[in-house]
Amino acid sequence: MNRIHQLYAWLMLLPALVMLFAFTHAPTLSTVWHSLLSPARGGRPQTFAGLSNYRMMLEDDVFWQTLTNNLWYAAGTVPSSIVLAVAMALWVNSGMAGRTLLRLAYFTPTMLPMIAVANIWLFFYTPEVGLFNKLLTLAGQEGINWLGDPKWALRSLMLMTVWKEAGFFMIFYLAALQSLNREMYQAAELEGASCWRIFRRITLPLLMPTTLFVLVNAVLNAFKLVDHLFILTKGGPNNASNLLLYYIYENAFSFFNSTYAATLTVVLLSILILLALVLFGLIERRVHYR
């Protein structure tokens, strides 16, 4: 009877397993194999090239620049988005008047399509008539070429990303805050604990499961930005704002070098797997599931 139950369970799982293999594992294995081939040029077919694509990648200055840009981009957007999301969630979870409208205002950027967001911020960043430079002019300051200056291009992308993602992450923190047991807060207040001590000793530890979930998603989002780059900078100027996934897109669809794009994809997947293992290894021991 137990074998019948096991067979029934595997048959129930079979459709999901087939879909998982067809759309996740099979493309990954195909990409790894494709990265070991030489590109097909002219009438010459693809041949096995071993690690030549990886050696070419290590000598590619643009790859190292895009990887460095991506690490800086993640370091700038991930902590900022999470801290801002927690602050907004604490604010709209309070008993203030008009908190429903404030929640809607914070969440509105998340509902906008990514292309629409990029076009809105393109107007903000326009050198002559953009909103930010108009404000700088009113303040008596000289305007900035936000997207055309290598010093500001990547920072401008970071600012837009934080604006869009903080409201999305706020929803998860708000749901977690509303599920917390109020008796612990009442006990802490009776003991005379300060607001900061309550947040550090009660709220923050209880939010760690949500923080782990949000952190993993924020890191993944930091390495999969394409839409905004396509509208705003196309990786320029001089690759100052180019990120790894957009460089993969360029190699695959602009330079028509699919094997090198596959090589870069394998590296990107390896980085994401390594980051996920590090995050779970360092943070999950601090997570207290209820």
From TrEMBL:
Membrane topology category? Multi-pass membrane protein
The biological processes this protein is annotated with in GO are: transmembrane transport
Q: Which Gene3D superfamilies match?
A: MetI-like
Pfam families from the xrefs?
BPD_transp_1
Location of the protein in the cell? Cell membrane
The segment(s) forming the ABC transmembrane type-1 domain are: 67-277
Give the protein's recorded name: ABC transporter permease
Source organism per UniProt = Desulfovibrio psychrotolerans
